[in-house]
């Protein structure tokens, strides 16, 4: 071991915008390129982490532009702050769920994920830093608030002068008292998936002729998907497309939805469709599931997965409970009711699931925004969701469409859509919310277009484990027939504000289970505008995205 490193104290001044949102600190690359900007944020995290001396830290990212440079900065800060062991994915690549697994498996103090999730990458695009704590989950609000407060007064950070570490070679380096280890990005994650699922059953199903296509969108899941689907499960070579992570994701948004993964959608709706299609986002925590001729909305996917999870080895003893974010449709609630297990409604953002998972109150969690996962990690997990579907299909030997239709016949269908108004002036967006908040008290009991509002509130979450309260998590307008309208502002955007309106209607009539979603919701969408007045106030004529 060489002890001849020199720890440098760099004087700095705070940047007052280092406030992490629902998924860490997310800004444009040029913001992160300001002198000392990433260093200040990372040092602020270390400063509120207690004693980091000798502890383990995981670092990785989704391969986007600036990833490699921030990793080198983070390594120097970690060494200077006295971490004992820093584990970094080869080529700087680690998916968000893989980081969560590594933290838990190797008992690290925490992990730094460099990603702006599904947002585009490149010199003028987005970058982000997330921090996960020792349970493998995103740092809770208490922690991120403390880091933010620290970043407002930070006047120095610690670093060392060393040459860059070669991230392309697996192996160990020693800098002072710190071991820097470049690890295989995929191995630990793939092993965990083999422990959860029946790979033999999936392999046999694929051998029998079942076909799939996975779109890695030139983002982090490429190497994982190649190894798991093609190598370990025997899917034909080329089943994984866009498999090489690129700094700009090939110029696309690595967002697996009907807009940005339209090619995959079109393929699954075509005559040449494989049996199954799926995609994941920039950092590998989201998933999109499409069967031949049938797109599965994330809220439905959560419900179907929960109802069938017992068919899979890791969940054969049944689920402890199900949790969903508040705006996610209530489809999963019906499954929990039938299974007689707990159902939890938490605010948007994965960190709110952590306590429920840690205390074995919930086993499966999901969000309408294409995030699903279980207690195997403390993040949403795109490839896990795909494998869960594959394992269920391999056992049931029915098509995706048949499974979903059967589910609806049994439980009824929650028609559901999200209407986004992006790029709204922040003040105008706040005005929409403020006006609506002012109306809430008078809404309950009123009828609009023949629909009666039972309750209207600003969702506040009381965490059943630590009793903490998170207020103002979105406005809920609940109708007496089970319909819901939810409104909230996005916490992940990087320019202006995004107003998200979520609309949901329950349908149990067997003859009305195959309607077009927007048509099925048309009446409620009109009612939403009457109540929220988003178009009237913002001047937008239509949503910028309908999901
Ligand atoms: C969005 C999604 C939310 C998800 C988050 C991070 O946040 O709506 O479900 O947890 O991205 O992937 P929002 O922009 O709505 O705050
Ligand atoms: Zn993501």
From TrEMBL:
<keyword id="KW-0597">Phosphoprotein</keyword>
<keyword id="KW-0413">Isomerase</keyword>
<keyword id="KW-0460">Magnesium</keyword>
<feature type="domain" description="Alpha-D-phosphohexomutase alpha/beta/alpha">
    <location>
        <begin position="188"/>
        <end position="290"/>
    </location>
</feature>
<dbReference type="GO" id="GO:0000287">
    <property type="term" value="F:magnesium ion binding"/>
</dbReference>
<dbReference type="GO" id="GO:0005975">
    <property type="term" value="P:carbohydrate metabolic process"/>
</dbReference>
<dbReference type="InterPro" id="IPR005844">
    <property type="entry name" value="A-D-PHexomutase_a/b/a-I"/>
</dbReference>
<dbReference type="Pfam" id="PF02880">
    <property type="entry name" value="PGM_PMM_III"/>
</dbReference>
<protein>
    <recommendedName>
        <fullName>phosphoglucomutase (alpha-D-glucose-1,6-bisphosphate-dependent)</fullName>
        <ecNumber>5.4.2.2</ecNumber>
    </recommendedName>
</protein>
<dbReference type="GO" id="GO:0004614">
    <property type="term" value="F:phosphoglucomutase activity"/>
</dbReference>
<dbReference type="InterPro" id="IPR016055">
    <property type="entry name" value="A-D-PHexomutase_a/b/a-I/II/III"/>
</dbReference>
<dbReference type="Pfam" id="PF24947">
    <property type="entry name" value="PGM1_C_vert_fung"/>
</dbReference>
<dbReference type="InterPro" id="IPR045244">
    <property type="entry name" value="PGM"/>
</dbReference>
<dbReference type="InterPro" id="IPR036900">
    <property type="entry name" value="A-D-PHexomutase_C_sf"/>
</dbReference>
<dbReference type="InterPro" id="IPR016066">
    <property type="entry name" value="A-D-PHexomutase_CS"/>
</dbReference>
<feature type="domain" description="Alpha-D-phosphohexomutase alpha/beta/alpha">
    <location>
        <begin position="18"/>
        <end position="153"/>
    </location>
</feature>
<dbReference type="InterPro" id="IPR005846">
    <property type="entry name" value="A-D-PHexomutase_a/b/a-III"/>
</dbReference>
<dbReference type="Pfam" id="PF02879">
    <property type="entry name" value="PGM_PMM_II"/>
</dbReference>
<dbReference type="Pfam" id="PF02878">
    <property type="entry name" value="PGM_PMM_I"/>
</dbReference>
<dbReference type="InterPro" id="IPR005845">
    <property type="entry name" value="A-D-PHexomutase_a/b/a-II"/>
</dbReference>
<comment type="similarity">
    <text>Belongs to the phosphohexose mutase family.</text>
</comment>
<dbReference type="InterPro" id="IPR005841">
    <property type="entry name" value="Alpha-D-phosphohexomutase_SF"/>
</dbReference>
<dbReference type="GO" id="GO:0005829">
    <property type="term" value="C:cytosol"/>
</dbReference>
<keyword id="KW-0479">Metal-binding</keyword>
<feature type="domain" description="Alpha-D-phosphohexomutase alpha/beta/alpha">
    <location>
        <begin position="299"/>
        <end position="410"/>
    </location>
</feature>
């Amino acid at each position: 071991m060489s002890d001849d490193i020199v720890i440098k104290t760099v004087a700095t001044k705070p940047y007052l915008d280092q406030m992490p949102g629902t998924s860490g600190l997310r800004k444009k690359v040029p913001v992160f390129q300001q002198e000392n900007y990433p260093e200040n944020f990372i040092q602020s995290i270390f400063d509120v982490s207690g004693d980091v001396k000798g502890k383990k830290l995981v670092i990785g990212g989704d391969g986007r532009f600036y990833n490699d440079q921030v990793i080198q900065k983070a390594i120097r800060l970690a060494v200077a702050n006295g971490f004992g062991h820093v584990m970094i994915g080869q080529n700087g690549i680690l998916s968000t769920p893989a980081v969560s697994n590594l933290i838990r498996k190797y008992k690290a103090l925490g992990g730094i994920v460099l990603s702006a999730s599904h947002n585009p990458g490149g010199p003028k695009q987005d970058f982000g830093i997330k921090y996960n704590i020792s349970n493998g989950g995103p740092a809770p609000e208490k922690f991120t608030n403390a880091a933010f407060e620290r970043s407002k007064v930070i006047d120095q950070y610690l670093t060392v002068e060393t040459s860059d570490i070669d991230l392309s070679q697996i192996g160990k380096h020693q800098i002072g008292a710190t071991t820097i280890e470049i690890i295989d990005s995929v191995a630990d994650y793939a092993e965990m998936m083999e422990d959860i699922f029946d790979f033999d059953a999936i392999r046999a199903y694929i051998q029998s002729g079942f076909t799939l296509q996975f779109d890695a969108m030139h983002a982090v899941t490429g190497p994982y998907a190649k190894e798991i689907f093609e190598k370990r499960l025997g899917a034909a070579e080329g089943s994984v497309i866009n498999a090489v992570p690129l700094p700009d994701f090939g110029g696309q948004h690595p967002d697996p939805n009907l807009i940005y993964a339209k090619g995959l959608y079109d393929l699954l709706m075509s005559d040449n469709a494989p049996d199954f299609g799926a995609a994941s986002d920039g950092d590998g925590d989201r998933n999109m599931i499409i069967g031949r001729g049938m797109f599965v909305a994330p809220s439905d996917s959560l419900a179907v997965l929960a109802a069938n999870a017992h068919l899979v080895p890791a969940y054969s003893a049944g689920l402890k409970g199900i949790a969903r974010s508040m705006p996610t449709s209530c489809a999963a609630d019906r499954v929990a009711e039938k299974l007689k297990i707990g159902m939890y409604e938490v605010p948007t953002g994965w960190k709110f699931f952590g306590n429920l998972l840690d205390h074995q109150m919930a086993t499966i969690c999901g969000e309408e925004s294409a995030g699903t996962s279980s207690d195997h990690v403390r993040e949403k997990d795109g490839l896990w969701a795909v494998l869960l579907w594959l394992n269920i299909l391999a056992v049931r030997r029915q098509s995706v469409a048949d499974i979903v239709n059967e589910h609806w016949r049994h439980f009824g269908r929650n028609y559901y859509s999200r209407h986004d108004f992006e790029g709204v002036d922040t003040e105008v967006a706040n005005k929409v919310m403020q006006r609506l908040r002012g109306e809430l008290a008078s809404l309950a009991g009123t009828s609009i277009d023949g629909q009666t509002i039972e309750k209207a509130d600003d969702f506040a979450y009381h965490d059943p484990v630590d009793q903490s309260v998170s207020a103002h998590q979105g406005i809920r307008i609940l109708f007496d027939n089970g319909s819901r309208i939810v409104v909230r502002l996005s916490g992940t955007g990087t320019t202006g504000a995004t107003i998200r309106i979520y609309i949901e209607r329950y349908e149990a009539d067997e003859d009305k289970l195959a309607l077009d979603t927007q048509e099925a919701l048309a009446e409620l969408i009109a009612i939403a505008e009457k109540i929220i007045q988003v178009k009237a106030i913002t001047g937008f004529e239509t949503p910028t995205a309908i999901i």
